[in-house]
Amino acid sequence: MAYKLLENYSMDQLRRFEFDQLQEHLIVALNDSELGDSDFQWIEKVASDLSNRSLSFVVLSEKLTYEILPETINLCPTLEEAIDLIEFEEIQRDLGL
């Protein structure tokens, strides 16, 4: 299982990242980011696009919660949990679930 971890990226930097070239699962650390509604919509679109390519997208943050973040976005507080979630999603895809 290969994944890319993006840390210390601002939302502007993330928006310029070439997600369409990505061939591995993505974990984005957003611990210090303040996000608005347009950011959430953009994150949902990226997550959906990656999912359509059988890639996982996980937000890594101890500060964000599902009360703030849409439930359609995977959220984990630690890197280990994010990796576990990606592995779980890979198993689901392999089983056709």
Q: Please mark out the parts with pLDDT under 50 across 5 or more consecutive residues, or reply none.
A: none
Task: Please give the share of residues in helix.
Answer: 40-55%
CATH class categorisation: Alpha Beta
Estimate the strand proportion: 15-25%
SSE arrangement, N to C:
EHEHEEH
Mean pLDDT: 91
Main β sheet profile: 4 strands, parallel
Termini separation: 18 Å
**Secondary structural class:** alpha/beta
Number of helices: 3
The CATH architecture designation is 2-Layer Sandwich
Shape: globular
Q: What is the alpha-carbon Rg in Å?
A: 13 Å
Count every beta strand, where a strand is a DSSP E run of 2 or more residues.
4
- The total domain count is 1
What is the compact description of this entry?
The protein has helices at 11-16, 37-52, 79-95, and strands at 3-6, 25-29, 57-60, 74-76.
Characterization of this structure:
The chain is α/β, with parallel strands linked by helices and 97 residues long. It has one domain (3-95): Transcription Regulator spoIIAA. Helix content is 40%, strand content 16%. The protein is built from 3 helices and 4 strands. It has helices spanning 11-16, 37-52, 79-95; strands at 3-6, 25-29, 57-60, 74-76. A 4-stranded parallel beta sheet has the order 1-2-3-4. Helix 2 (37-52) links the parallel strand 2 (25-29) and strand 3 (57-60). It starts with a strand and ends with a helix.
